[in-house]
Amino acid sequence: MDSTVPIESKEGDEGSEGSAGSAGSEGAPEAPEADIDALLPEELMVEVLLRLDVTSIGRALCVSRAWAALRDEDYLLWKRICTDRVFREAPGETLTDAFAVDVYGGWRGMFINRPRIRLDGVFVSRNTYVRIGVSEWRREKPIHICVWYRYLLFLPGGKFVYRTSAHPLKSVIKTLNEHHQTRKHVGHVGHEVQHIGRYRFLPSSGLVQTAFRYSNSYGTEVRSKLRLRGTTPGSFNRLDIENIVTWDRERDVSLPMMRVDDSEDAILGERREHKTAGSSPYVFVPFEQASTHVLNLGIDKLDYFVAG
């Protein structure tokens, strides 16, 4: 015999309990989710954004309309970015409100239109050439397409890392940042040489002048003249090679390694083709794209890259 006795409840009690439960769970309004735009004023939102790098700031401004409205905060946001993060005063100029408004129409216009050296990635020059092989047992001579790279990593304070390599960016990106922490001007990564040099940048013209000591020599420097430009407004993601020379300190003599100026046709003559080998423009690659960029493709998939 079953000893359990079912408990019967009255309709009034059941109804009252059910109404009370529904009133407690469904009747009470739910608390709205916290909105950072409503919690923080614009001044604090700008302080949060300024903790990010410039690329991340641009992406954050695309998150919502409230954040996109900060694009118009010329003095609150863009002035801080220009004066604290991006630009340094060039000789003969002062970064003031009047200068930004008169020359660029405001601080945001200065950020977009004023040339700047980008420190959030690496400039890569991918060069290819054709080499004729040796035929031993065949009449036809093999043809080889070879690829090599120039790497430029600009550092704060006017220094840069330079390296030529046969390896793509994803293979050298880790070692590019290691050597500049030492005081040596030349370092060796395997069989390749990595140099530390100094550069000078003229924002008015976008001219970049670099110099580093030649390996195994204390009196010879390699100097280059580069021109900064951008494929889109504000990108500044290309460096055109205009001149590369070696300079002897003791004799104060410079010898051209590569010159591409039209006025120097008479000097180079027929040898101009050889002197301009390796003149492919530098392409800027952000650090986050170093392992996935198209420049990492092998010669079988990318025989020639048009920098644009």
Question: Briefly, what is this?
Answer:
The protein has eleven helices and ten strands. The chain has 308 residues and is an alpha+beta fold.
Please characterize this protein's 3D structure.
This protein has 308 residues and is an alpha+beta fold. The protein contains 11 helices and 10 strands. An 8-stranded antiparallel barrel has the order 1-2-3-5-6-7-8-10. A hairpin with a 2-residue loop joins strand 4 and strand 5.
Features:
28% strand, 308 residues, 27% helix, 11 helices, 10 strands, disordered N terminus, alpha+beta, eight-stranded antiparallel barrel
End-to-end CA span: 92 Å
Number of strands: 10
**What is the subunit arrangement here?**
single chain
Lateral strand order in the biggest sheet: 1-2-3-5-6-7-8-10
Radius of gyration from the CA trace? 31 Å
Succession of helices and strands: HHHHHHHHEEEHEEEEEEHHE
Strand content: 25-35%
Shape descriptor reads globular
Q: How large is the count of helical segments?
A: 11
Mean pLDDT: 76
**Structural class label:** alpha+beta
- Portion of residues in helices? 25-40%
Residue runs with pLDDT of under 50 for 5 or more positions: 1-5, 12-25, 257-276
Q: Major sheet, described briefly? A: 8 strands, antiparallel, barrel
Q: What is the topological layout?
A:
Layout: H1 11-25, H2 36-39, H3 42-49, H4 54-60, H5 65-68, H6 74-86, H7 97-104, H8 107-113, E1 121-132, E2 143-155, E3 159-165, H9 169-176, E4 186-189, E5 192-202, E6 207-213, E7 220-229, E8 238-248, E9 253-259, H10 265-268, H11 272-275, E10 282-286
Antiparallel strand pairs: 1-2, 1-10, 2-3, 3-5, 4-5, 5-6, 6-7, 7-8, 8-9, 8-10
Helix pairs in contact: 6-8, 7-8
